Amino acid sequence: MRSTRHASAGVSPGTPHVCIRCRIQTQRRAGHTSAPAPAASNAASTKKSGTESIRPAYRSKPSGLPLQIREISVPTNLIQKGDTHDPRPLTDQAYFNELSHESDGHGSRIDCHAAKLSRREESPAKLRRAVEPELPAQKDLRRQRLQREHHEMGRSELDELLQKHVELGQTAGGGGDVHGKVAVGTDKRGESQKAGGMPSHRAKRMDKARRVDDEATRPAVAYNTRFSPATSPPKKSRTLQSPEHRQPRGTLIWPPPPSAAQYSQSRGYHSSRNVFQQVAAAQNSTSQPFTPELMPDPAKWQSPHGIRAQLRQWQEEYGHEQDLKRQDVDDGDDFDALGEASNNLTRLPSAKMAFTNTSAEQEEEEREAMAHFMQAPIDEPTSAELNTRFLNVGDLVEIEFMKSEREPVIAVFVRNTGTLAQFYTMQGRWVHLPEKRIQYSIPGWFRKEDVEPLLQYLPKPEEVESDFDRLMEDAYLRDLNVPRWVASPLVSRMVRFYEETKEIYRRHAATLDNAHDLMAHSTNLRYGTLVSAATTLLKLPANEVPLTALYAVRQALSNAGFAFNIDRRSHRLTGYLQIRSKEQVRMVEQVRRWLREWQDDLATLASKTSKQQRERHRSSQGAWYVYNFLAKAKAIVQRSRLDRQPTPSNIGPSKVRLPITSKQQCVRSTMEEEFNDSDVELVRFIEAWSLSQMFAGVPRIEALPPLLLQATGLYEDFELVTQTGLLFLQELGTVMPYENRIRFDQHLLLPASQHSKPLQHLMTTLEDMSDKQNPFVDSMADLRHDWGELPVYCIDDAGAHEIDDGISIEDAGVGADGGKESWLHVHIANPTAFFDRNHALAKMARHMGESIYMPERTYMMLPRWATQKYFSLAPGRPCLTFSARVDAKGQIVDRKIRPGRVRNVFRLTPAEVKELIGVNDDSNFPETVLIVGGDSPEPKHRVSRVTNMDARHVEDLKLLRALSEQRSNIRAAAGGLFFDTHKPSVDVWTAHNRMGLDWDHPYRRGSRRVEGDPVIRVRTRGLQNWFSPFADAVGTTVREAMLVACEVAATWCADRAVPAIFRGSVQRAGKMDSEAFYRDILAPAAKESPKGEYPMHLGTRYLETFGSTEFRTKPFKHKVLGMPAYGKVTSPLRRYGDMIVHWQIEAALREEARIGRSLVNADPKPERSFLPFSTPVLKNLLIGLQPRETMILKAKRYADDFWIMMLLFRAHHFGEITLPFPQVWDEKTGRMRSVVRAYVHVPSQASLPSVACMIMELNVIASMTSGALANAGVGSEAKMGDVWECMIGEVDCFRRNVLLMPMRLLERVEE
């Protein structure tokens, strides 16, 4: 909270208000040098000045340090009635007469101007400009005028004008909120300002250079080549400009003017409205009730016919309506350069910039939707809507404005229109935006019947989806809003919720504004939920926290900015939040302070035109830190460019080539220590911005790192965005030139990411355990069945890190119908029998969620020493066996679960099994292999047991294959859907004896030069129809056996009323019924196909009609798989959810052994206290487990995509290899380009510059520029199912995307 720059001194009632600076100057001219006395604090002086001094009786002080009290002036009329505005214009004289009674952040500077006006020393128009921030249109005109005048000026005149502009911009931006005299406690470590006199030189400096508190709106001037205050100013200045606003060289560009919203909405740990909340908090803490009698009587000093009386009358009549809209009023443009709407409720927004995604976001979502299918495990196909908590009609939601920090808006969810969701706000406006943008909702706030009356007045879904731009144009010309009498019941209830929330915030403002200090750890990252935060801050039990209080706490955490963090991919589902450590917040604030001092120093230097003035100038310590860092960084980057060429998406490959041999790696690093402690902090600051995206949603911090990049002068041809920040770190050597940035995801929190110190300590504990001699005890030892010589077939890739499962087949005799029956045994590794849920291994498994396999590294859920030495399936190892007795048709007639121990284990690869059973299903799809960086090392020699297998073993494998085909038919008859995406295989090497990369960590102490690059190999069979009949006989055999085990586990638990984690399909309202889709669309299309298969673009749509996968504690139908019950149990070594089911089953088995009978009974509520997880605990675990699995699924897909893009990047842009595709000459670029075929899986949209597609030769996600479609001669729209011939344009490693330029249409499916 900012105090006013000049505090008015106590004066007599008839004396004009004069600021301290002006009074000091007057006294000096009269021969007085002493500073004026501070204002009197008694009631008489307060009444004379029209303000009230309010001191809270209590204020929380968590740090234990004494508090310093500062007073901020609040006009008494604001405390009584709230901020009011007269819609009629004031005359100039009346305008300044009114301002003379208030302090609005300009301090008594307004009073001085009013006094000058009364003496006619300044014109009213000039004074109005001096105290009012300019409107954006006025600022644009002034900036354009200065640009035109630049060409007509000399150097000296330009410097003078530059200084004038800096001062003028600071004066215009000096305004703040209207403050009152409120006692504000600050820690001694804070930066509170003294209330007494101020030296004149400091007052001048603060008045000149520190009027704007928000760095993002500060009119900073940065010279590219200035790294020392002693250097002479360069001949031109450059400022940060977005590409669309970038001007030609030689044109003077002033920084963009701040909008009014940035002044009124800017906040650090306090919102602008917290001023009044602090007032209310102080009132509630006084010993006696605060009443209007404590305030001076306005009638004694205000005219009954004055403007204040008229404003008060207007407020009483119309203020209740205006207050609802004031939070959204903005003098700025409808949207900023980042695409965030800043005034899109009081004025209808642009369809492209208001509530719809930006083009980049929509392109990314389209690619994710298709890539999610590609990466989804075969045993659980799912839709792109996985793990999304769907909104229902009547849910109360919060609409945020991430890029402008505007106050959120309360709205009600009306319906889905297709790709967008429709909402109705408490301001009486309808808006459309993607449902995933909603981060907070209250289910069932309104009944469906309450919302239905709005539907006939709202845009129809078909209108929104077909032509949203035209709809918005109509909304500008005609009133398309819901009549007030229809919407008033909803609006009034939303307003009441909003007002109750604000009242709770006011009562607890002192605590809520101090939330981070109360909840954060000094050095460690903490976790919490919104409910836990509310109970901590409000001192209420969780079941007694009202929804309004919960939302008030949410607003407080949002106001804290960087201090709290949420994962926007899943927060609405989980409510989880990260509480950043006080140390980390202090680091960010410290670097912000350095950068502020640096900006001030640049502005000061720009005003010094003579050499003597610049030599006498002394920079502050923070400014020197930045100057020195920039000088070192610039030198390091220039050295780096001697070996590696920078590009917008990634640094290029090294000019040095190092072949892989038995004695050397293909990468060599050299590090030099050149940075001091302050440099390290600046590097960490840029890391947080570009690598971990920690500043997303905090624009005032997010705007600072680009200034450093700009100041180096080395990135003039690059957009100053996060990917350029990553390029900067690569050129410094902080991260490796080929670093996969997904590793640093702040929510993925990999143990090696260095985000969490407790996690690193847990890793150390597990490493220490590896030295102990067999630290485990088998809790199922007495119940284990010895499987003896029964063959167990473990079929997996040769490079598998751990073996979870094996399959056996055993003769079960003849069934009741006379047919042959068999026992199908699925043996699963059993680590949970050796430690409980509170063990260190279990804690690491819960954090990880599952093992994360990336081409460069594997992040194990359980340490490798534990899996390889004790738990991975091998001869003599323990297991948990899921058995099903099946007939010749694949029907399950009996089931059981037994702990056991396997002896006769055969580890086989899929290729070996195919050879044994005599199948070759890959002949029609030859494999394409691409390699950059040299030859791939020879694989390690593996001892195979194929030579030990006889005819019996081959017959077992053939029987398993036959049963798997029968099981597939059963699932298909139950409505199951089958598909296979045939994902490319990616491998990476730097050494000959192992795959992957070394465990490199960020190097922040200086430069790191990396010579050479990894060897990358991609193997693919190209894009095949995902819904073709399965040709992979071995894959089908393994998959069906695992599904049998999952069904056995779910059914066994259901029979015994054992809660666990079960998965199934949930149909979403509004989606087309899957049976109707199949009957009306899919089946006719399959009949027309020569092979009788589903067209791929229709198959993906069909898959979406099945709904989404959901987790529950009781089994239910999985419609996509065609199974009555499904619970994953086959991968306890790499999936925490499977471990939970194993713990529950083991506890039930031990209980059955103890009581000597089965737990199967008809009791609807049996006693299950022996289980390690109760149903409520499981439900709580499911909240975070499902989003965690989705995050890991995407992380693995991103890693594969990154390395494929890195291979194409080095091949296409640097010519390391020639891609095996046709080549054509591109006249625009004057170079040869590869030609590929692109399959369009989503329709193009006119508002997007590209359409998502897939490169058919590689089976890789790409984007095709829609602007070039018209030039291809087929119109401007690509349709689903199209096949286009395209040139490869650019390969973007940062966004993991290939940009294609269409040449001609090859195929188009019929409608």
UniProtKB/TrEMBL annotation:
Cellular component terms per the entry's GO annotation: P-body
Give the source's domain of life in one word: Eukaryota
By its UniProt entry, which InterPro entries does this protein fall under? NA-bd_OB-fold, RNase_II/R, RNR_Ribonuclease, SH3_CYT4, WH_CYT4
Q: Where is the composition biased (Low complexity)?
A: 33-48
> Which Pfam families would you find in this protein's record?
RNB, SH3_CYT4, WHD_CYT4
Q: Where is this region: Disordered?
A: 29-63, 117-144, 170-270
Under the heading SMART domains, the entry gives: RNB
GO molecular function per UniProt: 3'-5'-RNA exonuclease activity; RNA binding
Q: PANTHER family, per this entry? A: EXORIBONUCLEASE CYT-4, PUTATIVE (AFU_ORTHOLOGUE AFUA_7G01550)-RELATED (PTHR23355:SF65), RIBONUCLEASE (PTHR23355)
Q: What is this protein called?
A: RNB domain-containing protein
